[in-house]
Amino acid sequence: QHVPCTRIDQKGVHGFVARHDGYAARFGLLHERELTLTDNGNLLAGRDRFQRPGGGALRDNGRDFVTVRFHIHPDISLLQDEHDRLTLAAAQGDSWTFTCAEVLPQIEESIYFAGLGGPRRSRQIVLAFKASEIAEVHWQLTRTDIAGRLENN
């Protein structure tokens, strides 16, 4: 019912912080997400925070396990290397690296429903953790290749 949103306009970075109470009645959690994008479009940084209404400490009560999901379009390849870095790449398009500081990202199966040809298999990046132990996660998508040209920034 309550979805406050604040815009972020800083030198070289634009974004927003938004929070919703959709999980408050059932799980006693508020979810807040911050997204910022650099002016050159090469870095999308995010933060997902979980807190109790009123700001109290989250309880380890079995209802504090959260999962943040990033559904990937079926035309995007998603690879995990030996260092657990995730690379997203479009055929003849840009490549991006997904990282998260607090939680090891996992890859799971998903389904893409928005296509005209009906449902298609796809994948998703999953960050799963106990919010009572990790109240917020920081993740980012960094462009590593622009249509076949390595980005040196």
Name given to the CATH architecture: Distorted Sandwich
Can you tell me the number of structural domains? 1
SSE string: EEHEEEEEEEEEE
How many strands in all?
Answer: 12
Instruction: Figure out the total of helices.
Output: 1
Global structural class: mainly beta
Poorly predicted regions are: none
- Shape verdict: globular
Q: What are its keywords?
A:
Beta-galactosidase, Chain A, domain 5, mainly beta, nine-stranded antiparallel sheet, 12 strands, 57% strand, 153 residues, 1 helix, three-stranded antiparallel sheet
Report on the structure:
There is one protein chain. The chain is an all-beta fold and 153 residues long. It has one domain (5-148): Beta-galactosidase, Chain A, domain 5, CATH 2.70.98. 3% of the residues lie in helices and 57% in strands. The strands form 2 sheets. Strands 1, 2, 3, 4, 6, 7, 8, 11 and 12 form a 9-stranded antiparallel beta sheet that branches. A 3-stranded antiparallel beta sheet has the order 5-10-9, with no helix packed on it. The mean pLDDT is 89.
